[in-house]
Amino acid sequence: MNKKSSVVLIASIMTVFGVMMIPQNVSAESNQNSVTVTPIDEEVSLQQTITTMNIPEDNVLPWGSVRGSASDYVERYPVIIQFYKGEDPVHVAQVDVKGDGSYEYKFRVRNVDLNTGEAVNIFQGEYTVKIFKVIHNTNQIA
C-alpha cells in the first residue's frame, strides 16, 4: 500500500475514537472498555477503544465530555470519536491531541428551544462510543 492510500485509509477509518470520562450524571462505564489495535503499515497502527455512555432521563447538565490521554499517539493525526445509539451513528467528532498528549471533546447533552424556552435532551439513554487514534507500532510487522 502506498503512502497516499495509507493516509486515505487512515482518514476514512478515523471517521469513528481513549478513555471516557463524563462529569456527574453523564457517565461512561470505563471498566467495560474494549481496545483493539489494527496495523496500518510498518510504522503505525489504529487503536480503537469502545466504551458505553449513559445519560439519565433526569439529567440537568448541559454539557458532556470525552477526555483521554494519547501518550503513544502519532503527531498530526487527530482523535476521532463516534457516538452510536444502538447500531445507528448519531454524532461524530474530530479533536486534536494537545502537546501533553491529552485530548478533550465537549458536547451539548441538553439544549433550550429558543421558540418555547423548553429544555430539550439531545442525548438520553445508553450510547456506544468508539474512540480512534493512530499510535506507533510497538511490534514489527512481518
Molecular structure report:
The protein has 142 residues and is mainly beta. It has one domain (3-136): Sandwich (Immunoglobulin-like). 8% of the residues lie in helices and 47% in strands. The protein is built from 1 helix and 10 strands, in the order αββββββββββ. It has one helix at residues 3-13, and strands spanning 27-28, 34-39, 44-55, 63-69, 79-85, 88-95, 102-108, 110-112, 119-121, 125-136. The strands form 3 sheets. Strands 1, 2, 3, 5, 6 and 10 form a 6-stranded antiparallel beta sheet that branches. The model is unreliable at 3-31 (pLDDT under 50).
CATH architecture group name: Sandwich
What name does CATH use for the topology? Answer: Immunoglobulin-like
User: What order do the SSEs take from the amino end to the carboxyl end, as H and E?
Assistant: HEEEEEEEEEE
Question: How many structurally independent domains?
Answer: 1
Mean pLDDT, nearest integer?
A: 79
Count of helical regions: 1
How much β-strand is present in the residues?
over 45%
Tally of extended strands?
Answer: 10
Helix content: under 10%
- What separation lies between the terminal Cα atoms? 15 Å
Taking pLDDT < 50 over at least 5 consecutive residues as the criterion, the unreliable ranges are 3-31
CATH class assignment: Mainly Beta
Strand-helix topology:
Elements: H1 3-13, E1 27-28, E2 34-39, E3 44-55, E4 63-69, E5 79-85, E6 88-95, E7 102-108, E8 110-112, E9 119-121, E10 125-136
